[in-house]
Amino acid sequence: MRYVDKTVIGLSIAFVVLVFADFFMAEWMRFIGLQSLARGAVALGLLVLWRTGLVSFGHALYFGFGAYTAAMLTLIGFHDAFFLVFAGTLSAGVLAFLLGFLLRRYRAIFFALLNMAFSMILYGVIVKTEELGSTDGFSLGPPTFLGYAPEGEAVQTALFLFTLVFTYIVTVGVHLYMKTTLGSMSMAVRENEIRVEYLGYSAEKVIHVKYVFSGLVAGFGGAIIALAIGQVDPDSMANWTVSGEFVFITILSGIGNVGATYIGALVFELIRTYAFEYAPQVWQFILGGSLLAIIMFLPDGIWSLFSRFRKSEG
Amino acid sequence: MTAVLEVRDLQKTFGAVVAAKDINVTVNEHEIIGIIGANGAGKTTFVNMVTGYLKPTSGHIEFAGRNIIGLPPRAITTLGISRSFQVPQVFMSESVFDNLMMAYAITEEKGMGLLSPMYNDERAGRVDAHLDRYQIVEYRNATASTLPQGVRKLLDIAMAAVSKPTILMLDEPTSGISVEEKFGLMDVIMEALRQDNTTVLFIEHDMEIVERYVSRVLAFYQGQVICDAPTAEALVDPGVREFVIGEEYHRTRTENGNGNGNNRDDDQGSTDNA
């Protein structure tokens, strides 16, 4: 590489800082951090779709699928975080691959709502399955890490580190991928599918690739959250409101930079946590108000603050 | 002369409407063919069928030694037939350079190559050479949506030509362009395509353009080819004069002597995109 990529440097610095911070953070901070990383990863998938011109109102499907896959595997005796997260990620990816054959033919609101329809099917299935605890869900024990079985606070510390490593790899990977021909075709498909076809490539194929990727990271995020909370339930994993949260985070972050999704997810978690704590009656009102404020004052998301700053500097 | 494209007994109906009927055309290497005809005569339908956008009701289209009917546009593009559009199909929010960069990358990369970085200096060099050839260097960094119509048309055609197609079909390259600019635009296009030995078929309403750039004319009327002849012959063909050019135009010019050539009643600049 002849020039140094600023985003990769930024992500690497953040990675190193967070690795050290992991050992000093208060428990609640680490928990919020873990949530932000996991949800930020899901939002990263939505960002890739968004750049292709598509919005999904149903990625709780893959989030929930990944979470439940990981959780169900603990029921039959698997507890290794590497295996559980890998299985959750992969299963969601396979599901996205299969549904992708249908969904890649739809655009705009049809794409968004068809995703939501599928996600609500999963929700319905989970709610009706008493073996999986129905609306209560079920809990899973603490994960092990390749034989290392931490206890107490060390579980979260290890899990945070584990999540950090994988989100770092995925995020840098996505950033580099965006610069490849296939990655750049997001723009081409968003701008003009006819031209893409007449240049000799299938726009639907491009969309399918992006869709499978978004499914993979959503499954990843779901599996992480399942391990972090130690409990899965349909309302916080597979309901359409969860899909809405991911879209919320994506709007909050903006699609300017891959790192922005984590900042957006963190801001979202903080707003939600504090709004819930200090104004339990009106916390949704506060959440909605902040979304409105973002759309009105920062239509390109939080990231536009950074680019604005950089522009005034240069 | 070797035939590169053979169209036999092509038919297309939309319900009761016959958009193409008994079309038989052989296109030879390096030919420049003008497709003329009034609105709704079937010109764009013909281009759409050859490029795979529309599936003919029946007939054969043979290209590169195989029947290409039923192939999607991307497969036909890969085989070597490209097209430009009456309404330019470009990536509107991107710069001219990035538009062509994308076109080059999609054309050049296959399989795992799609995962190599899109931008590299060699490719950027090719893009700049292409900009130069189509004389749009001064618009290199301009956003496509802000371009003047003529430049956007050039960009559209330049993007279609990136793959160095055997045949390039241009759908009304000069529609929406002012009379003064038309010849300049066509000179650039034809010179650029000549360097690649591209066979060109283009739809055109302006007979002066046809006379100047075309060696052979295909005249369409009500879905049929009513004349397929060298340009000089075709333009005096009675059928063409009546149904395509319109006798009125010639009468005002030659008999009354008061015509200034502006009151032609053909339909230049109009839209008939299928």
* Portion in helices of chain A: over 70%
Biggest β-sheet: strands ordered side by side in the sheet of chain B: 6-7-8-3-9-10
CATH superfamily annotation of one domain in chain B: P-loop containing nucleotide triphosphate hydrolases
Report strand order across the widest sheet of chain A. Answer: 1-2
Report the structural category of chain B: alpha/beta
What are the low-pLDDT stretches of chain B, counting only 5+ consecutive residues below 50? 250-274
Mean pLDDT of chain A: 87
Spans where pLDDT lies below 50 across 5 or more residues of chain A: none
- Using CB atoms under 8 Å apart, which protein chain pair has the greatest interface? A-B, 21 and 34 residues
Distance between the termini of chain B: 32 Å
Helix share, percent of chain B:
25-40%
Number of strands of chain B: 10
Question: Helix and strand layout, with pairings?
Answer:
The complex is a heterodimer of chains A (314) and B (274).
Chain A: H1 6-22, H2 27-51, H3 60-75, H4 81-103, H5 108-128, E1 138-139, H6 153-177, H7 181-191, H8 193-198, H9 203-229, E2 231-232, H10 234-237, H11 240-253, H12 260-278, H13 283-297, H14 303-313
Antiparallel strand pairs in A: 1-2
Helix pairs in contact in A: 1-6, 2-6, 2-9, 2-11, 2-12, 3-4, 3-5, 3-9, 4-9, 6-9, 7-9, 11-12, 12-13
Chain B: E1 3-14, E2 17-28, E3 32-37, H1 43-50, E4 58-63, E5 66-67, H2 73-79, E6 81-84, H3 96-108, H4 121-133, H5 149-161, E7 167-170, H6 179-195, E8 199-203, H7 207-213, E9 216-221, E10 224-230, H8 231-236, H9 238-245, H10 247-256
Parallel strand pairs in B: 3-8, 3-9, 6-7, 7-8
Antiparallel strand pairs in B: 1-2, 1-4, 4-5, 9-10
